[in-house]
Amino acid sequence: MTISEPDSAGSDPREAPSPSGGGGPAGVSRRGFTRLLSFAGLGAVVVAIWGYLRGWFSGPATPREVEVAGLGEIAVGESKIFQYPRSTDPCILIRPAADRYLAYSRFCTHLQCVVFYRPAQNGFECPCHHGFFSAADGSVLDGPPPRPLPRIRLEQRDGKLWAVGMESS
Ligand code: FES
Predict the structure, then answer these.
(1) Are 125 and 132 in contact (CB under 8 A)?
(2) What is the per-residue pLDDT across 85-141, written as a single tens digit (0 to 9) for each?
(3) Which CATH number fits domain 66-167: 3.50.50.60, 2.60.40.1180, 2.102.10.10, 2.30.30.30?
(4) Alpha-carbon torsion 41, 46, 47, 51, what sign?
(5) Distance from the CA of 78 to the center of ligand 1, in angstroms?
(6) Which residues are CB-neighbours of 1 under 8 A, at least 6 positions away?
(7) Which residue among 24, 45, 121, 125 has the highest number of C-beta atoms inside a 10 angstrom radius?
């Protein structure tokens, strides 16, 4: 076996064909094989990013209906936590009067901290930057939030309350 020297023209010895001839069974050079791996890796990254962005932006095409509570399950002045429209989206149902139920997203419209119901002040407090929202309509009463809390549309059916959509302003 002999070891070849680079020729005087300066060709890259890594480009030399392997002893088996042509760099492999399919005749792909080492550089070509490296390029192929790079394109495959790039393709995998593009597919992963596409899948992530698609999930991020698409959301539910038609908000699904979710059972929130039975009628009378919470007393006047009380609240119940639920998730809508995804199982990771925190919401709150409140009952300000015997015949009145309201529901809101708990994500603060400033930087998405979770808000807390303060029935004594008839509102929702965001602990992050002291935002405060009205429990009557979700409007901003104090602090930096730029928009009201998104409201959850409710329907009464079969003795239960159902979340059937969201209203953002
Ligand atoms: S995140 Fe709620 S006030 Fe800033």
Answers:
(1) yes
(2) 999 999 999 999 999 999 999 999 999 999 999 999 999 999 999 999 999 999 999
(3) 2.102.10.10
(4) positive
(5) 23
(6) none
(7) 125
